[in-house]
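Hey, I'm writing a tutorial for new members on how sequence and structure tokens pair up, and I'd like a real worked example in the thread rather than a made-up one. If someone can provide the structure for the chain below, I'll link this post from the tutorial.
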Amino acid sequence: MASGIAGLASAVANEGAEAALARFNLQELAGRPAAEVLEAVAEVICPDGGTIDESIARDAMLEAIAEVAEDDPGAFDELSMDQLDEFLCDVITRSVVTKVLNEIGTNALHGSASDADFREAERITRDFTQGRVRDALGSRFDVGSRPTQTEIDRSISEVYTDTFDMLGAVLETMQ
């Protein structure tokens, strides 16, 4: 999922919106509202009815698209690279945080923490993850930069591991 969005961002930077959308057979959507185009891309790279991890990724992408729709940035081909980078970081952050909380956080927090502690741990996790995603991806999607799927997957895996470890440390301090 992340590599699909990263590929889209990279292609937009290097080839333009219509060529980037052609990779998903969606070139006819160039010029349409950004949220509409991103929803169509989501259907291609995160189809409904997959594994739990795929469902988490799909939900993360749809939540990020809802935020894009609220901001109403205009047509997809008018999005800046900063806006696409922000969207990508938002999707990855949401996906990693949800996965980590599902893996260790929810059971541990609900079993031994107050609702306030749970909300605080979730906030810390989201802030930490967002910073790590930005650090990990940096300027990988600037013009001329084409990260491989392996590089993107490795970066996201490192962010996940760091977030998992960080939440474990936070949980220890709450006990």
